[in-house]
Amino acid sequence: MPWLQTVLDVEINDQISSDDRTTPTTFLGWPRQTVFTDVIEGGQADFDAPIGHLSGADRALLYAKYNQVRHLDELKHAFRQLFQPGQSYGDPLMIDLGCGPFTAGLSLAATLGKNDVFDYYGVDHYQSMRDLGLRLANATRAHGGLHDRTKYQFLQDLNQVNFGPIRGSLTLFVASYLLASPNLNIENLVRDMVNAHTRASLGPAAVLYTNSARAEARAKFPDFKKLLIEAGFNLVVDHIDRFTETIKTPTDVHYALFFKPANFSIRRDKTL
Known about the structure:
Helices cover 36% and strands 19% of the residues. By secondary structure, the protein is an alpha/beta fold.
């Protein structure tokens, strides 16, 4: 989508290149060859904490510069399998877990197109990521990438989300590289996901998981899978692909998809 590259250029690339600290060998004054390891720590940094002369906002911006393009490509590939052209999906609700800078929202908007409506809830521990995500979402709207009725929010905790009236549309959870986090509690995560689906919709739910295929990155996946299956989700896809549809270096990616059928039974108000 033409708007997508414009958004990335204006909000990420131009911000870095026009910064007075950037030189031919640095980004924002930091040596380019060590940004990935030292500044964003492979994507697992504390993005609210300053490092050297860089602020948390600087670190989030450099994360987008180094990691976001490949993750966008991977998620667009997955969404093209999930959402077929010409089909109606009833204004799906997306919950992006560990959302970073609106990556899954950008990918879904690019896949569905501006004529399709969806609601987006980005959940991330780091304020710097939520701020950058909101900026990218606003820029996407300004450049015509979102339907007028598409809504988005960014929050720190999934339990903070107010979904409004119960709906009947698909709830799509995205856990992209989330399980690589060393501090993530899988039991709490799945419990909160099930609770969120109960509060959000009587319709079906899907969980899209993507991660590096490295063993250490996938260490928590067996427990994640087990807990989702115990919660009523069916495992539909679980495979590793060499991902080549990117301008970044091709890499092995672990994809998994879980699906839970709709439950249209009336939920009794416990206060009655």
